[in-house]
């Protein structure tokens, strides 16, 4: 009985270590995503300025459709094209808002 308890505790510690490692990996990925999204936002601000300079509208529906189609085609992982499309729609909306304002926070 005591031997079984020891094995169970050991297995739980191993699972916890594995879970902690996976969570640390996600935390690093999240940090990368934040950095990249802020870079995208900064570029969007510059694009908005250029659009205003050229008298172009901020919203370019054809461009956004092309981006979404490209993202959905590139999806090779567990996130399907529809899920990535929804994520990128939110990203593009946030970046469009930055373009309208012409500046970040």
Number of helices: 3
Q: Helical proportion?
A: over 70%
The arrangement of helices and strands along the chain is: HHH
CATH superfamily: Chorismate mutase
Strand content: under 5%
Largest sheet: none
CATH topology: Chorismate Mutase Domain, subunit A
What would the average pLDDT be, to the nearest integer? Answer: 90
* Low-confidence blocks of residues: none
- CATH architecture, please? Up-down Bundle
Q: Termini separation (Å)? A: 61 Å
Q: How many β-strand stretches?
A: 0
Q: Give me the Rg, rounded.
A: 22 Å
What general form does the structure show?
Answer: elongated
Number of domain modules:
1
Structural class: mainly alpha
CATH class value: Mainly Alpha
Short characterization:
The protein has 105 residues and is an all-alpha fold. It has one domain (2-101): Chorismate mutase (Chorismate Mutase Domain, subunit A). The protein has helices spanning 2-54, 61-74, 81-101.
Describe the structure.
This protein is mainly alpha-helical and 105 residues long. The chain has a single domain, classed as Up-down Bundle (Chorismate Mutase Domain, subunit A). 84% of the residues lie in helices and 0% in strands. The protein has 3 helices and no strands.
